[in-house]
Amino acid sequence: MSGQVKLSRRRFLQVLAGTAGALIVGIRTVRAATAQTPPDMLGDALYDMGVYVRVDADGTVLIGTRDPETGTGVATSLARIIADEMDADWQRVRVLPLGLGVADDNGKPRWLYGQQVGGTGNSMPRAWRDLRSAGALARWLLIRAAVPQLGVPPEQLRTEQGAVIAPDGRRIGYGELAAAAAKIALPPGPISLKTPDRYTLIGKPAGDIDARAIVTGQTPYTFDQHFGEMLVAVLAHCPWPDGQLTGLDSSAALAIKGVVKVIELKPDPKLPPGQTVIAPAVAVIAENTWVALQGQRALKLTWKPGASGSESTAALEQQASALLDSDAAPTTRVRDDGDVDKAKRKAARRVEATYYQPWLAHAASEPMNCLVRLDKTSATLYVPTQSPQQAWTVVQRLTGFAPDQIDIRVPRIGGGYGRRLDHDYVAEAVLLAKEVDKPLQLFWPRDEDLTHDFYRSGSVHKFSAIIDAKRHVLAWNQRVASASALTNRGVPSDHVWTSEVSANQLPAGLVPNYRSDWFGLASSLPRGPHRGMPDVTNAFAVGSFIDEIAHSLKEDPLVTQLRLIGEPRLVPLQGGGAIDTARLINVLKLVADRINWKDWLHSVNGLGIACWHTGGAYVAHAIEVSMQGEKLTIERVVCAVDVGRVINPMGLEGQVAGATLDALSTALNLAITVKDGKVQQSTWKDYQLASMAQLPRTVEVITVPGEGDPAGASFLAMPTVAPALANAVFRVSAVRVRRLPLMKELLRLL
Amino acid sequence: MAQDHAALPSKAADITPTPVRPGIDLQINGEAFHHTGDPEMPLLWYLRDVLRLNGTKYGGEHGEGGADLVLVNGKATSAISVTMSKLADKKITTVEGLTDRKGAGLHPLQQAFIDEDAIGCGYCTPGWLIASMDLLNRVKDPSDNDIDTLPNLCRCGCQTRVRKAVKRAAAAMKQGAKA
C-alpha cells in the first residue's frame, strides 16, 4: 500500500491507494459525545479511521462490516448502507467481516472502527450516524476522477450502479476510476449525503449476504476454523461456580491414546464475572475432539460446593415474594411520579396481581468455543464474540501483549443472545494455550453450556393499580424482585437495577401516579446480559396486568389499552427522548385490524394483544389460540413493528418473525431450575426449545414505513409475545397464567 | 505342505488376491473414503476433525436439535449418534453434497431456503436442509402436518420460513420433474 494521504485531525475520511490501482476509503468514527451530530455535518468531530470500502480495478467493491454477525442480518444491512450511499452495483459487492480494529496508542488500545458490538440492537443506529460517510466520500472521489475523461464538471455527473455517468449517457465504471480517485485531494468540507428519494438499496429487500455459503455448508463459524497441528481442549466444570476441586484422578484419561495433557483451571476471584473462568474446571487437551471428549468422560473428579451449594431457584422465589410482601424499603426506587399513596384514597377499584418468571439459559446453537494461536509476540484468535473489544481486554490481561499484537477475528456466529458479551471461554482458551506449544481449540459440550451459563435471573412482579370512576388508571405501583445481571460487574450499586427494569417502560409517563420499585435478590448463581432484557420480563407482567384491569372493568382489553395510552402526543422519557404515542397506537391498531379484533368477544378462539416500546421503536402482537382439552394451538400470530426507516425489509421481517418464535418457544417451555446450587437442565431434552409442530405455521409481520433514523430490531419483537399469548389463553380457557413457562403452569391450573 | 504349494508355479486363474485391508470403506458425497482410525469415532467428528467437512454441525451429545444430521443411504441420521463402525459401504450425503455436482448448481431445496430467507444465524441450517431433503425424498408434496415432523430445533426462530421453503422446494422439484 502506498500514497497514504496525510490529513489533519479535522478531516473525516482517509484515502489510500491500494495495490493494483485500488481506491480505499476509511472513515473516522464519531465520538460518543457527538452522537447527535446531524448526518450532513459528519466529519467535524471525527477522529479515527479503518478501512470500510475498497474499489478494485476490476470493479469489485469490497465492503468491510465492523459489527459481529450473530444472525440478525447486520452484515448485510451495514454493507447496503455503504453501498447505497456510493451507488455501488450490489451484484459486484463483496462483504468482508472486519476483525477487531485496534492500534497501539502508547500501550493503550485505540479502537479503529469505534464500537464493535453485535446483537444488542444498536448496530443500525450507529451505522446510520457514521458509516454512510464512507460511501459518500468514495462516490465524491470517483465522480471527480471521471471529470478529465468525460470533460464535464462534477456537478453535472451522476452515479448509478457502479458507474459515473455524463449527461450525454457516456459512462465509466468505478473500477476504471479507482486508481485516479485515490490520488484526488479530499473535499475541503463536509460532503452531503444522499436524500432518501435517491436510495436504491435502502428500503429494498435483500437476502443475507452469506445465504448461499450457508446453504452449501461453506460458511465457516469459529468452531469450523482450525490451525495446523491444533489441539482440542474439552472442559469439565465444577457444578458450583464457587466450589472447589477436591479430587482429581486423570490416569484413565491420560491413558487414552491422543490425550496430551490434563490441566486444572480456577476462576480469578478478583476479576468480574465474564472476564475469568466461570467455575473451577479440568481440561483434557487432546489431538482431536473425539479423543478429548473421551478423555473428559474418563476423568474422575470430586467437587466440593461453595456457598451457592445451598441455593435453589425455589428458595430465591420465596425470598423475592417475602421481600415484595414486606414493608422493606426497595433496593432502588426506579421511578415515582405523582403520589401513589394519596391516589389510593380515591380508589373506585383496585386491581392486584403477582407474576413469576423463571431463570433462563442462553442456549446458543454454536457451542461455546474459541481458537487460539500464541507465540512469543502475538496472539491470534478466532472468537465467536458479540464484543471483540471485551474479548481483547481478556486476552491482553492474560498475555501482556501490546494492543496490536492481539489479532481477534470474528467469523459469523451461531447465535449470541447476550451469552457472548461475556468472555469466560476466551480466558479459558488463552490460559490453556499457554500450557501447550501448539494452537488450541476450546470446546464446551452442550451439557457444560446449559449448566454453566450467565443466566437470566428469575423474577417476581407484584403489581397493583388504582382505577378511578371514569375507568382511568389513576395509580400504578409495581414492585419487582430479581437478582441483577450487573452485580459485581463494576457497576455502581445504585445502578445495578438497570439490567432488570427500565424507568421508561410502559405505562411510565402515561399514568399520573406511577411508582416502580426494584428489590435486589442475593444469589451466587452467575447472571449476565440476556436477549431482550430488561424489557422481556416486565413486558409480560405489564401486558398481562393491563388485560387483568380490562377484565376487572369487564371491557375489551384493546379499549383499556387505548385509554391507558391516551391521545397521540409526545411523552418525555427520563434521560431524554420521548414516546410517540401515535406510533404506539398505530402498531396496536394494525395488529388488531389484521387479527379481526372486533371478533374478540364472540370468537370461539382466544384473542390476546399487547404493545411495547423500547429503544425508539414500537411493537405490538396479537395472537389467536385454540384449545382442545389440554392441547393448545397457536392459530395466528400478527406482529407490527415501527423502527423508523427500514434498511432491509426482508431482513427486518425475518428478524421479527424469528424473535417472535424465539419468544414463543421461551414463554411456552423454558425454565432453568437450580437445586442445591446445581442447574438441573443439561440437554435439549431438559431445556426444550419449541418444536416445529408446537409453533405457529406462520407469523404475519407488518412493518410500518418510516422516515426517522433507523432503530435496532434485534430483540424488538420479543417483549409483547408472552403477554399477548397469556391474554389469548385466558380468553379461550378462563385460566390466567401468571407464571412462565406457560405450558407447565396452564396444565397445572386446568 | 505349504512349501509344496510354494514350489508349484501358480496358474493365473489361481491368483485371487485378498489383501487384508483394515478399516472402513464408505462413500461421502460421491467420493470414496477409507477410515483406519478408531471405529467407535462418531461420524460427526470424522467429518469435522478428519475430513474438515465442516458443514455438519455439533448441536449436542445426543443429536437432539438436528444440527448434525446427514443422509445415510438417503435417510436423515444424527452424525454424532452413529459410529464409523456402522458405516461400512454406506453412502453418506452431507450439506456440502446437496449441490448438483454436474451442473454445480444449487439444489431446488437450497435455492428455496435462500429465496424464503429461511436462515437465522445459519448454524442449524444444514441440519434443516438434510431433514427437509429426507422428507422430500419420502413425500413429494408434503403437507403442513408432514412438515411438523421435522425434528430440528432453531433458537433464531426460522421455522415459519423453513416451512415456506420446503413447500417452495416441493413445487420447484415437481416442476423440474415435469420439464
UniProtKB/TrEMBL annotation, chain A:
It comes from the Bacteria. InterPro entries: Ald_Oxase/Xan_DH_a/b (IPR000674), Ald_Oxase/Xan_DH_a/b_sf (IPR036856), AldOxase/xan_DH_MoCoBD1 (IPR008274), AldOxase/xan_DH_MoCoBD2 (IPR046867), AldOxase/xan_DH_Mopterin-bd_sf (IPR037165), N-heterocyclic_Hydroxylase (IPR052516), OxRdtase_Mopterin-bd_su_IorB (IPR012368), TAT_signal (IPR006311). Residues 216-307 form the Aldehyde oxidase/xanthine dehydrogenase a/b hammerhead domain. SUPFAM superfamilies: CO dehydrogenase molybdoprotein N-domain-like, Molybdenum cofactor-binding domain. This is Isoquinoline 1-oxidoreductase subunit beta. It comes from Dyella acidisoli.
TrEMBL record, chain B:
Keywords: 2Fe-2S, Iron, Iron-sulfur, Metal-binding. The keyword Iron applies. This is Isoquinoline 1-oxidoreductase subunit alpha. It comes from Dyella acidisoli. InterPro entries: 2Fe-2S-bd, 2Fe-2S-bd_dom_sf, 2Fe-2S_ferredoxin-like_sf, Beta-grasp_dom_sf, Diverse_Oxidoreductases. The keyword Iron applies. Pfam families: Fer2_2. Residues 94-167 form the [2Fe-2S]-binding domain.
